[in-house]
Write a structure and sequence with these properties.
The complex is a heterodimer of chains A (671) and B (312).
Chain A (H helix, E strand, L loop, with lengths): L1 H22 L4 H29 L3 E5 L8 E5 L1 H24 L8 H20 L3 H19 L5 H32 L4 H4 L6 H19 L8 H7 L2 H26 L5 H23 L4 H28 L3 H35 L11 H4 L1 H14 L6 H17 L4 H33 L6 H5 L5 H19 L1 H16 L7 E2 L2 E2 L11 H11 L1 H11 L5 E4 L16 H11 L1 H10 L2 H17 L4 H22 L6 H20 L1
Antiparallel strand pairs in A: 1-2, 3-4
Helix pairs in contact in A: 1-2, 1-4, 2-3, 2-4, 3-4, 3-10, 3-13, 3-19, 4-5, 4-10, 5-6, 6-8, 6-9, 8-10, 9-12, 10-12, 10-13, 11-12, 11-17, 12-13, 12-16, 12-17, 13-15, 13-16, 13-19, 13-20, 15-17, 15-19, 16-17, 16-19
Chain B lengths: L1 H34 L9 H10 L3 E4 L4 H20 L15 H21 L3 H32 L4 H9 L6 H18 L24 H26 L10 H28 L8 H21 L2
Helix pairs in contact in B: 1-3, 1-8, 1-9, 2-8, 3-4, 3-8, 4-5, 5-6, 5-7, 5-10, 7-8, 7-10, 8-9
The chains are: A mainly alpha (671), B mainly alpha (312).
Chain lengths: 671, 312
Amino acid sequence: MPTLELLAASLLFYIAGGFVSLLLGKTERLAILGASLGAFVAALLGVDAAVPVLIGGDTSLFEVVGPFSFAHFSLRFDPLAALMVFVISIVTVATSIYAVSYLEEYSGKGVGAIGFFMNLFIASMVMVALVDNALYFVLFWEAMTLASYFLVIVHQDDESIEAGFLYFFIAHGFSMLMMVAFLLLYMQTGSLEFASFRGIHLPDRLASTVFLLAFFGFGAKAGIMPLHIWLPRAHPAAPSHASALMSGVMIKLGIYGIIRVGVDFLGATTAWWGWLVLAFGCVSAVLGVLYALAEHDIKRLLAYHSVENIGIILMGAGIGMVGMASGKPLLTSIGLLAALYHLLNHATFKSLLFLGAGAVLHRIPTRDMNAMGGLGRRMPLTAFFFLIGALAISAIPPLNGFVSEWFTYQGLFSAATQSEFASRLLGPLGAVMLAATGALALMCFVKTWGMVFGGAPRSSHAVEAVEVPKTMLAGMALLAALCVLFGLGAPLIAPVLGHVVATLTAGQTVPVAQGLSVFPGVARQAVLSTSVIALLMAGLLAIPLAVAAFHRRRVRARISANAWACGYEHTPQMVVSAGGFAEPLRVMFRGLYLLRTSAGPVGDAGDTALRDMTLLAARTEPMWDRASVGFSSRSVDLLGRSVQIFQSGDLRLYCLYILVALAAVLLAVTW
Amino acid sequence: MQTFLLFLVGLLQAVLLFLLAPLITGMARVLRAKFHSRQGPGLFQDYRDLKKLLGRREIVAQEAGAVFAATPYIFLMAMLLVAMAIPAIFVGSPIGAMGDLIAVLYLLALGRFFFTLSGIDSGSVFGGIGASRETTLAVVNEPIMMLSLFIVAILSGSTNLGVMSDVILHHRSVSYAAIGLAALAFGFAIFIEMGKLPFDLAEAEQELQEGPLTEYSGSSLALMKWGVALRQVVAAALFVGLFLPFGAATSLSPLALILGALILSVKLIVIFAALSFLENTMARVRFLDSTRLTFVAASAAVLGFAFSLAGI
């Protein structure tokens, strides 16, 4: 079959590129080119294979008897898998172009190995989407985790090794849950083939157990709160093009897993699964963005935004699952469509933002945004592409982020108009959470763009920064163009995704697009046309331009001067810092940030526990020492503590002591 | 044909609000002066200010970038877009393809994005603080707006503002109490969206509310000031068009439209006179305590939502 041959060729190119990179590791230039070229060609082949399946909707199957009698090596390329391959491939096209110049930064740090693990990582992601057998799924899933682990620890410093350890630990710990879920299904069907899991009828309690195991197992990979703690550490540690793939694509495979098991296998039979997914989505979205706001490490900030966007995707998925459970095809379609659309969009703009951050870090040696500033004038194209990404992730019309959030809102609204009380209550609440998320995301990206690219430079590196090489710009330009296209092309994309949902749920296709506009199944509910908005934008821009041009004919000159600082000399330190910008929110939402400090160290708690254990094992302390020295040191300590009561540090108390002493002396004298 | 006519109505509406905006802010200035027992500058002072500024030479901060230069145009464009999308003269959204509440709220966000970003991009000391406050208030405000609009949308079965307005005009809904509370909450949120008291300082506009404007001058300042005025008028028109739609044109005949435009202008003037009274008699609130006040609006919205669930 041509589709599968294309995919096979694509995988061959990934692997060939990877090995070329590893073998030519000594001559770095060639290693980078080999890996990038391999990935580039492979990704194009992947797009070529995925697009016809997405449009045509044919499912192709492939099966070989592998070395194991109990598990056949079977592949299934259905529209959902094609969507994942498409997402992986488009991001890979951009990152492979970008890597050509970007990887020079890692010269002498094992460029060959980076290329090797990178290509292996992408290939295993493609395989995860393709395989149709639990055993091979788990194998490729672990390969994906392992390859990305090596990308996280590339820097080889304390921070990245700690992040890598945490990532390794959580990824493997939680993939156990996923394996148990598969084993439970295996016990029921006696086969590891996904085909036998599909449409399985389980007793309610068992089905819920399998779903919960899968949800948390895959959810840890997706980065839902509170299983997200590895994400803001691991993603920033990797090279930026790897972060782009991890944040843009890999965590989406967690969503893919949740949808595969919850919707495809189990048929989302119980309504509370959907509500649970929605609830986790809401919490992840709001807290993810709130924590992002408090960051001034640019890549960690972006990583927290991945938590937020995973939350938004899950909100749509949750609505879709509720719709399935209650037998409402419209709700199912709109919810899942919103989720898949946001999955696609997040892949484009988040990868774009990570590549933009990588471009900035290419020129500035620290990730601290307080040491940036003024890069908009020095790196104008990077700034422009980053602005597109920032607008898209803030859901500003007519870009792609807006369209998918619009569908999510419409899904929530459709839920709110159902007759069940839970839908009527939770739908609008979800919308309120999404609105809060939107406003917070806008604030966060105003801060990010402003701190990095706006105003005056705040370090000598920022003063000297120049634009990055052309290949890096080309990678970003591609993704920025996709952000615009997926926004304006909504009437073309929404029906395709609607079709993916229809084949997945074996339901009918709900109409979502007509002419230049999209609508959520029923046109009376709402209509949106991003292309009309874009046209009107272009047209209306004429009014202010005309007003200004009419008057500006007389005065053309512009004077340049220092920014006003109440008559003092303007210095960059006067301007609001990344922390100061978000300070009002940290005061207003003190309570919510508490969770960050208390939930954050879950990872730390693991670390300290491990350290204490090794310490305990290493220490062979004589009992005598502990009894004698320990006792006296403890008693001294206790005595000191009891004396401390008098030394409270309160000035009034000391005045009282003086008064008492004076009175005592006076009494003694007069007696 | 119908679509084209509606497009013309939208354009008419946008131009009307655009031209009316300086008059209304001028009126607010006069009224404030009267409250202070001052003479005041005259109703048309804002037009004269704009004309003068447009003819002035610009002074630009050294480190200000491209966003700073482009924002006056983008900000005004965003506000004009919203003016075209909302039901105001005509009951129904002139451009249905962007007339739903989500698109309108996010178009307002587009304006806010560039307005605040320009403040940081100017390198100004006040710009950044002003931007921080503006976006922080939006975080508190946006959920209130979304919930109060969602209540009406659910009762109308559509998120299209035109349909919602039509339902209220013809009393097709059953939950009057819910709609009343939604109107209260939305009105309060709009009051904040306009950048009026109690969170911003009437007498220190330059520093805080208009913080991002600090570095603007000449024609750019004129466009920004015009945009800020238009934002206030558009926000008020959104409230009026949705919750007080009586008098709006129900057909597309020229007479009905002209009458609709007149009635809209009168309604806006009355609303702004009332707001003027409110903003000049209310005490200012410390910015960090503003959640205490928005809490009132949030509870009104939540109560309205509870009523709508109960169907009262």
